Amino acid sequence: MLLALVPRLGGEAIALVLLDAQLAITGIALLAPVVAPPLSWLVGRILVPGVAGALARDNARTAVRRTSSTVAPILVTVGIAAATFAATATLWDASERAAAARVTAATIALPAGAAGIADPGPGVPTAQSVVYVRNDDYSEEFDAMYTGPGVETVLRLPVRSGAVADLAGTDTVVVGSALARATGWRTGGTADLWLDDATPVRLRVVAVLEPSIDLDQTVLLPWALRAAHPRSGADAVYLTGSSSSSVDGAGTVTAAEYFRSRNAEQRRLNHLALVAVLGMALVYTSIAIANTLIMSTGGRSRDLAVLRLGGGTPRQVLTMIGAEAVLVGVTGVLLAGLVTAGMLGGLRAGLVPLVADPRTVVPWTPILLIAGACLTITFVASVVPAALALRTPPGRLSSVRE
What we know:
Elements: H1 2-9, H2 14-30, H3 32-47, H4 50-62, H5 64-101, E1 107-111, E2 124-135, E3 138-147, H6 151-154, E4 159-162, E5 172-175, H7 177-183, E6 190-194, E7 200-209, E8 218-222, H8 223-227, E9 236-239, E10 250-253, H9 255-298, H10 301-309, H11 314-351, H12 364-389, H13 394-397
Parallel strand pairs: 3-8, 5-7
Antiparallel strand pairs: 1-9, 1-10, 2-3, 2-9, 4-7, 5-8, 6-7
């Protein structure tokens, strides 16, 4: 129901999409005893033919406790991993494409070293920074960008009110839509904040931008304000026409290349953080799956003995147990995929008002590795204990206490 509201809420619903996915995963995990057994049977009908497949899917359907307690941790781990990786990659891609699409400059000049570009020539210089805004009893950090005169000629900056051309002097600021809404700043009013060197300033709001995914919580500051607080040169210079030849010691790139390279390190760090967190979750999932399946082997002793006494060879019995493990694991992954697909559909709908033709980006490698690890653990934790149990003669195995 929450995902159905996303198209109407637009960009404000983007923050709810991951929460929606987590709630959906939790809800399906709670309903695993109802959902997992029949779905496992259906998956078995499609994937595993033959007698072993029939026994495997019937076991998955009738052993409700074992099936649901195995499916639930797989669903949670793969579902959260897939939703988080896909949502993060999709939002990064949308932000970079939106930022590149607003550039009207022919090229962007980048400095050769860390000192920046001291003389931007006829181009429009910009520099990334941060500002701090008081929020109750603490200061919150927001992105900031110093821009030279004429920024409105090299960037598309639709405004809700005011004019970006008025960004001049040392006492003006342009504010993103979400930040203005959160702080109560309005065009013509004042904004109290701290610069990145902790200098307190009171600036006049000359424009509030329309909602966007890349500048919604960003402030634009005049270049003269940066000059008043000595710093290095420009991070980038937006160039029009043939003016690129007048910037000494700088290389030129396209807008897409610039934003991709600018965000590369942050994307890498975010990816490593996700891998670390989800890696710990995978460890706990492995323990949960292994404990469930190993403990359930003792309860299957008589079933294994019946299969052996009925003429089944150890290899045939292990094939059936392995097929059942695969069915249960695939069921968990399938449920996780359904939740992730719904989340991505809602996320795309929320991005439509903010990005022209938003794309869905799915980093398959980490997702498939996590799903494969869950399937491998399920298979090994099912087959190995059963193989050890089958070393006991069938007559003695049938008398083992459950």
